[in-house]
């Protein structure tokens, strides 16, 4: 029998989840908490296997509850069940130590399966939440301006176009030795080993379009 503690500040939601758990043969509700402080008290008293946790609550937040539980010697599995799929909130919860993240609009069986999954060591994530995370990660892709100086961006762009150091130096009005210094810094900051790898990085992470490319001379 998997012992579950339900934590939600809305009494109707909390009661509904308790009733849902009672419809199964392998899940047992050992308590319900209306806020984070009471949740921590009940975890100590009831020793649940899984905490089914809302994030938005008065007083101690859901993320703070996760952090507090993770600091205990034998923390229960934590399944977030909330209305929010915002990537920032998801990352906060996961970073704090949540084992799974589902939305309240999930089907009843999906919630029950989520409880079983975290209890067995799995990590269920709602598809809408996964899409939100992927969009956020795409939006956070590094750009040249975020990791390089303005002059290093100029050097990288010309390298990306295939120009040798001598031509890059002439086009930028700097010495060939200075170009080599810039390239060393670029390689270090991008975490690449050579010109080819730097050019490939630029291909993936820069907005430079095909019509800006020229044939090196």
Q: How would you describe what is shown here?
A:
The chain is of the alpha/beta class. It has two domains: 2-139, Rossmann fold (3-Layer(aba) Sandwich); 144-212, Arc Repressor Mutant, subunit A (Orthogonal Bundle). It has eleven helices and five strands, in the order E-H-E-H-E-H-E-H-E-H-H-H-H-H-H-H. It has helices at 11-22, 36-46, 62-70, 87-96, 108-119, 127-139, 144-147, 150-160, 165-172, 176-190, 195-205, and strands at 2-7, 27-33, 50-53, 77-82, 100-103. Strands 2-1-3-4-5 form a five-stranded parallel β-sheet, with helices on both faces. Helix 1 links the parallel strand 1 (2-7) and strand 2 (27-33). The longest helix has 15 residues, at 176-190. Residues 209-217 have low confidence and may be disordered.
Distance between the termini: 74 Å
Structural category is alpha/beta
Number of helices, where a helix is a run of at least 4 consecutive DSSP H or I residues: 11
What is the level-2 CATH architecture name of the largest domain?
3-Layer(aba) Sandwich
CATH class group of the largest domain: Alpha Beta
**Tally of discrete structural domains:** 2
Give helix % range.
Answer: 40-55%
What would the CATH topology of the largest domain be? Answer: Rossmann fold
Number of strands: 5
Q: Write out the strand line-up for the largest beta sheet, numbering strands in chain order.
A: 2-1-3-4-5
Low-confidence stretches: 209-217
- The chain-level mean pLDDT equals 88
């Amino acid at each position: 029998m998997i012992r579950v503690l339900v934590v939600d500040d809305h009494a109707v939601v909390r009661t509904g989840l308790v009733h849902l758990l009672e419809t199964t043969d392998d899940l047992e509700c050992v308590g319900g908490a209306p806020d984070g402080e009471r949740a921590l008290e009940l975890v100590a008293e009831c020793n649940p296997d899984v905490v089914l946790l809302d994030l938005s609550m008065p007083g101690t937040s859901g993320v703070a509850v996760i952090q507090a539980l993770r600091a205990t010697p034998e923390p229960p599995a934590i399944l977030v069940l909330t209305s929010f799929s915002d990537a920032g909130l998801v990352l906060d919860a996961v970073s704090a130590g949540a084992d799974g993240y589902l939305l309240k609009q999930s089907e009843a069986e999906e919630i029950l399966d989520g409880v079983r999954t975290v209890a067995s060591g799995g990590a269920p994530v709602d598809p809408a939440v996964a899409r939100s995370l992927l969009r956020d990660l795409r939006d956070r892709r590094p750009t040249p301006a975020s990791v390089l100086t303005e002059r290093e961006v100029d050097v990288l762009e010309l390298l990306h176009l295939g120009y040798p150091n001598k031509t890059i130096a002439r086009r930028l009005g700097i010495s060939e030795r200075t170009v080599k210094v810039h390239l060393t810094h670029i390689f270090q900051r991008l975490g690449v080993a050579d010109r080819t790898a730097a050019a490939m990085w630029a291909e993936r992470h820069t907005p430079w379009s095909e019509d800006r490319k020229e044939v090196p001379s």
